[in-house]
Amino acid sequence: MARKEKPDAPPKKKRLDQVKQTYRMAKKTDPRIGWVALGTVVVVLLLFVLLGLLLKPVWLWPLLGLPSALLAGALVFGRRAERAAYSQLEGQPGAAAAALGTLRRGFDMTPVVATNKYQDVVHRVVGRPGIILVGEGTSAPRVANLLAQEKRRHARVAAEAPVIDVIVGNGPEQVPLRRLARRVMKLPRKLRPAEVTELRSRLRALGTQPVAMPKGPLPRNLKVPRGVVRPR
Fold first, then answer.
1. Helix/strand/coil (H/E/C) assignment for every residue in 66-105
2. Separation of alpha carbons 157 and 205, rounded Å
3. Cα–Cα dist 176/96, whole Å
4. Do both 185 and 148 map to the same domain?
5. Domain for residue 77, yes or no?
6. Which structural domain, as residue segments, surrounds residue 36?
7. Which is nearest to 133 in space by CA: 171, 162, 104?
8. Could you tell me if 202 and 114 lie in one domain?
């Protein structure tokens, strides 16, 4: 007799589990996140109570305001959770790869396509903007040199596709980690979907395979939360 497979958890339960996991992660660096989100809900509800006292009926306005209060609390929670996640990732090897992991459909990310003895790394994203090479490390000049080498190597098979280089950091002409995914998604679309598929085939021919992450990898469960937080 065939064994019955255990049914998957309901989507609502999965969502609650995800929120709990995100809360536990964010609380490590933002202990007040729960109170701030709850306070936002209460403040918005009080505003609707005041509207009820002024405009009548009193009972109707809090009911109308409850969805808005919950939405405001969720937005505050999401933004603070995102900030907490990036603060934990900042400065760790592979942080840019974790941030790029939040990219939406249409972007294909390959982590650590190049590295050097100083643990500077280059990640690659392929999408309609073309090839985006993202460098991170402790020295901007070294990262720039590593990116330049990879840009020349990728340009040989890119044909007409743009090859864009980005350095992650807080210095001049660098992209802060928390804004990386948004910057990539806002790049101008230069290629059609069919051209992206062809480009991916050419890159496979290049023989670029992901290499090992430098020493000191990210903690296993440390990542930017999906679903609760989305790049803006």
1. HHHHHHHHHHHHHHHHHHHHHHHHCCCCCHHHHHHCCCCC
2. 9
3. 10
4. yes
5. yes
6. 11-89
7. 162
8. yes
pLDDT along the chain (232 residues), means of 10: 52 77 84 92 94 88 92 92 82 85 89 90 94 93 94 87 93 90 93 91 70 49 49 40
In a domain, 232, yes or no: no
Tell me: do 18 and 113 sit in the same domain. no
Nearest one of 206, 178, 219, 169 to 79, comparing CA atoms: 178
pLDDT value for 70: 94
> Which parts of 116-182 are beta strand (E)?
121-127, 130-136, 163-167
Burial category of 218 from C-beta neighbours within 10 Å (exposed 0-12, middle 13-18, buried 19 and up): middle
Q: Is residue 230 part of a domain?
A: no
Within a domain: residue 62?
yes
